[in-house]
Amino acid sequence: GAGVSQSPRYKVAKRGQDVALRCDPISGHVSLFWYQQALGQGPEFLTYFQNEAQLDKSGLPSDRFFAERPEGSVSTLKIQRTQQEDSAVYLCASSLGVWGGGDGYTFGSGTRLTVV
Amino acid sequence: SQQGEEDPQALSIQEGENATMNCSYKTSINNLQWYRQNSGRGLVHLILIRSNEREKHSGRLRVTLDTSKKSSSLLITASRAADTASYFCATRGGNQFYFGTGTSLTVIP
């Protein structure tokens, strides 16, 4: 597609519920990132994929967070047993190469998760 | 934790004026990028400056980089109401980008 697509745009979950957030990167993009952005803050790194390989998951805040990209394209971020502190906007970004080149990274519009 | 810090946190100017925001970072970099984020939207890449560059222009944007001071500035000239957004600098460390806390710019028509 023309851009990075994330779904759903908004998600309200009851505390303890599991959620799955989807990211469709630009076709052919090698690198894919997930970021978490709390209100009024900058994005915080969660995890990085190079094709289907999850090379860095050091930013995942707990073992309740899990991400996958099984075929090197679409990625899913899953949060189990959601808690109120998980409320944030979850951003996905992709780039054609490993280093992003001169065009930077393309971000999706994000999924706003509210845990009640 | 976030590596960069933008300054000021908030900036309000009249349309037509220039807006300058600064970014400081902590570690050595290969490049530094600036992004814009409109309320409720994703980030849009504005400009990338490499560590061996000191200044770069793109339209109404001018970015400077001082690696000795670990700082960068973004200048938006002849601002427009549509420039109202949050602006973030981002530096790469390992596999991730570190974003600052952002400067919230309001351009008053």
Structural class by sheet pairing and helices of chain B: mainly beta
The radius of gyration over CA of chain A amounts to 13 Å
- What's the helix count of chain A? 0
Beta strand % of chain A: over 45%
Helix content of chain A: under 10%
How can the largest sheet of chain B be summarized?
A: 6 strands, mixed
Structure notes:
The complex is a heterodimer of chains A (116) and B (109). Chain A has no helices and eleven strands. Chain A has 116 residues and is an all-beta fold. The mean pLDDT of chain A is 92. In chain B, the strands form two sheets. In chain B, strands 2, 4, 5, 9, 10 and 11 form a six-stranded mixed sheet that branches. In chain B, strands 1-3-8-7-6 form a five-stranded antiparallel sheet, with no helix packed on it. Chain B is mostly beta strands. The N and C termini of chain B lie far apart (36 Å). The interface between A and B is medium-sized, with 28 and 24 residues.
Short key terms for the protein model shown above:
heterodimer; A: 116 residues; mainly beta; 0% helix; B: 109 residues; 6-stranded mixed sheet; 5-stranded antiparallel sheet
Compact summary:
Chain A has 116 residues and is mainly β.
Lay out the secondary structure:
The complex is a heterodimer of chains A (116) and B (109).
Chain A: E1 5-7, E2 10-13, E3 19-24, E4 31-37, E5 44-50, E6 53-56, E7 65-68, E8 75-79, E9 88-95, E10 106-107, E11 111-115
Parallel strand pairs in A: 2-11
Antiparallel strand pairs in A: 1-3, 3-8, 4-5, 4-9, 5-6, 7-8, 9-10, 9-11
Chain B: E1 5-7, E2 10-14, E3 19-24, E4 31-37, E5 43-50, E6 55-58, E7 61-66, E8 71-76, E9 85-93, E10 96-99, E11 103-108
Parallel strand pairs in B: 2-11
Antiparallel strand pairs in B: 1-3, 3-8, 4-5, 4-9, 6-7, 7-8, 9-10, 9-11
